[in-house]
Write a sequence for this structure.
């Protein structure tokens, strides 16, 4: 216990408790048997004795009938005795026979006629009958002051008794509690056995007091060094501060173990050190039961996993860096793949990637008897865009054409930038009639959308010519089909551009091998 910066040990607290209990018992017995000196009571007895002595003298003078002499005696008594303030002789009928000066003016009868420390009434009996009373008023005792109370015999006796008793109790308990020292509750051989453990160990009683702390525990924190036996574990602030927040609501783990008689396993805590570092510790708590299974204490162990945590953190950091590197490599591979397969200006497949994918589709269609069509398209008069507006506008024209073509085909169809302003499209499971319709939609969309799509040049008109060739035209290779579609493109350009023409077979007569869906208007 610590109050106002002063540490009160258990011996001191017990000694104070014993002295307080002893004084309480003395006061109780004093109230019952008057065993302590009482100055007021003694003073009252003395004054009553003085009153009886004066009463005997007054009775003798009343018997002589000498009232004048009685008056003189009363005056002399009040003058010679500083304790007596006034004296009066009063008959039973209330008549004052004799009185000292100021008696009649100051006398106030006590309540119920009982004697007090300052007012005493002594009855006078003559011929076995009550003749009257002697009224005596004494001066107020100086013992009514606070200092007089402190210096009274009873208080002095209690102070001396308390002081001597406290010293005696303290010395006795210091000697007696040596035999009850918590460090003696655990045999020395057991302590040495626990000191050999690399794991930090605490043994607590049911009140949370430390019964044993092994050597490893005292190395856990700089403030753990010293005599810990008998101290409540809650006084180890560095340990309490490391407990999880829920301990404030549900109690500390060792308290929960004692209450529930169940183990607490692998409780991770972080102990802050004075140098700014910290220790990662896994805490386990298990109950110490007696022969009938009742928890009589708790064994708390602390396993320092700081190095393991640091190694795990380093490993995790390494894995994160490795994952980051893998992500970067994957991203770079994607970029390389994109560069290797796609045209950087339009995002369309380049010729190498196109031939690799189209060849597979062509062979599947050829062996399976399925339809497949190749469309070749070329931007009409493209050189004029570069010559008139510059290559930047020419690049925009190529990009707009690629976007328009991409919107007009399906996701599994192939679009390739075949040359500078030339594109090749491979459509699967499509016959030549459907391909002509698709080509016409492309031509119309390009004519209507590509020019307005370039906002830097107003009134720009962009058109393209298309050539269509089918796998059903008797071609044996992909190159033959592309060449056939290119012939259709050549025919469309020769016929006036901005139109779609299909070539049905290289061996057919020319008038039967060309079909047109649009003539430039």
């Amino acid at each position: 216990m610590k109050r106002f910066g002063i540490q009160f040990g258990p011996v001191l607290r017990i000694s104070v408790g014993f002295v307080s209990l002893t004084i309480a018992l003395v006061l109780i017995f004093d109230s019952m048997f008057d065993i302590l000196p009482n100055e007021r009571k003694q003073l009252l007895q003395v004054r009553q004795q003085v009153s009886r002595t004066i009463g005997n003298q007054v009775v003798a003078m009343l018997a002589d009938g000498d009232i004048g002499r009685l008056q003189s005696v009363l005056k002399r008594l009040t003058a010679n005795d500083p304790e007596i303030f006034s004296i009066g002789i009063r008959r039973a009928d209330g008549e004052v026979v004799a009185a000292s000066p100021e008696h009649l003016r100051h006398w106030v009868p006590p309540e119920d006629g009982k004697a007090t420390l300052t007012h005493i009434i002594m009855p006078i009996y003559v011929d076995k009958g009550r003749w009257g009373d002697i009224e005596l008023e004494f001066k107020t005792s100086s013992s009514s002051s606070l200092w007089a109370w402190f210096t009274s015999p009873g208080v002095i006796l209690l102070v001396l008794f308390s002081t001597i008793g406290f010293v005696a109790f303290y010395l006795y308990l210091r000697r007696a509690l040596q035999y009850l020292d918590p460090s003696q509750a655990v045999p020395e051989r057991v302590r040495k056995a626990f000191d050999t453990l690399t794991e930090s160990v605490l043994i607590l009683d049911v009140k949370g007091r430390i019964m044993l702390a092994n050597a490893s525990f005292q190395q856990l924190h700089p403030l753990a060094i010293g005599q810990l036996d008998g101290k409540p574990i809650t006084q180890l602030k560095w340990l309490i501060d490391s407990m999880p927040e829920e301990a404030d609501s549900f109690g500390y783990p060792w308290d929960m173990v004692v209450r529930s008689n169940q183990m607490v396993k692998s409780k991770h805590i972080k102990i802050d050190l004075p140098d700014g570092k910290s220790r990662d510790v896994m805490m386990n708590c298990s109950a110490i039961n007696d022969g009938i299974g009742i928890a009589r204490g708790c064994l708390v162990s602390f396993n320092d996993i700081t190095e393991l945590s640091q190694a795990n953190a380093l490993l995790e950091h390494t894995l994160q860096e490795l994952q980051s590197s893998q992500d970067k490599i994957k991203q770079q591979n994607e970029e390389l793949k994109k560069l290797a397969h796609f045209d950087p200006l339009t995002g369309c497949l380049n010729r190498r990637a196109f031939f690799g994918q189209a060849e597979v589709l062509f062979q599947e269609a050829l062996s399976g008897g399925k339809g497949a069509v190749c469309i070749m398209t070329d931007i009409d008069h493209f050189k004029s865009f570069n010559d008139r507006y510059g290559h930047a506008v020419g690049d925009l024209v190529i990009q707009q054409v690629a976007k328009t073509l991409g919107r007009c085909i399906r996701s599994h169809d192939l679009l390739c930038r075949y040359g500078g302003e030339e594109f090749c499209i491979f459509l699967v499971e499509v016959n030549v009639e459907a391909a002509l319709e698709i080509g016409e939609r492309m031509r119309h969309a390009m004519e209507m959308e590509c020019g307005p799509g370039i906002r830097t040049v107003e009134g720009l008109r962009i058109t393209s010519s298309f050539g269509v060739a089918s796998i059903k035209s008797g071609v044996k290779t992909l190159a033959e089909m592309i060449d056939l579609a290119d012939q259709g493109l050549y025919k469309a350009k020769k016929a006036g551009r901005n139109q779609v023409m299909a070539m049905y077979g290289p061996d057919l007569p020319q008038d039967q091998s060309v079909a047109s869906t649009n003539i430039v208007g």
User: Anything to note?
Assistant: The chain is about 50% helix and 20% strand. The chain has a mean pLDDT of 84. The first strand starts at residue 2 and ends at 3. The CA atoms of residues 186 and 212 lie 7 Å apart.
